[in-house]
Here is the input.
Amino acid sequence: MASEVRRSNREAERGSAPASDDNPPLITGRYLFLRRSFGELSDFALACGYAASVWTPSVLRPWPARCPLRRKLGFLFRAALSIAGLECGAICIYWERRIIHYSAFSSRYWRFPFMSGEDLQIGGTWTDPEHRGKGLAQFAIRQILKLKRKPGRNFWYCVEEHNSPSVQVARRTGFEIVAQGVWRKPLGLKLFGSYVPDISATPPDHEPAATPAHPN
Here is the structure.
């Protein structure tokens, strides 16, 4: 991992605006970098009443069916990445014909410079507050792993270090914490931000706290 992180730091420096007294990179928060490699997965059923589907972006489908208006911009961004040649998509979960959860994935681009060309990143996860604690995120992540796994591919999950519920979901789907790092926003612009691992930081030992049987 150390060699991967060193490479990622060099690439992140090349891919972001140069730091200077007049143009310092804005660093916001501390993040955990979790990784999962190719391997077997145990079955995990979706709770009764929910339905899941795979969204594959295209010009005719820039966002999933019945996507809330306030969520469309994020999907439109992923659709643009797909048109540019990246591997993108999402697992969407519905309740009574209404989308109440999604977990997205994408291949490497400037926001994740530490990834290799075959790797995928899982993120952009959202759950309607009324449906949290039902195991929806865990189900969606497992579906992505099953659909997209192949030898030599790593899956990545970046999350704020204080977001214990999200860390627990990732670890219950086989992810391990391999590094800490930061989120850098050149010129304060979120669009051009990137996750940068810190080789000097020792990954913390996050022990899951007591949670319901099916965390979000």
Summary: The longest strand covers residues 26-36. Residues 5-23, 208-215 have pLDDT under 50 and may be disordered. The chain is about 20% helix and 30% strand. The chain has one domain: 2-198.
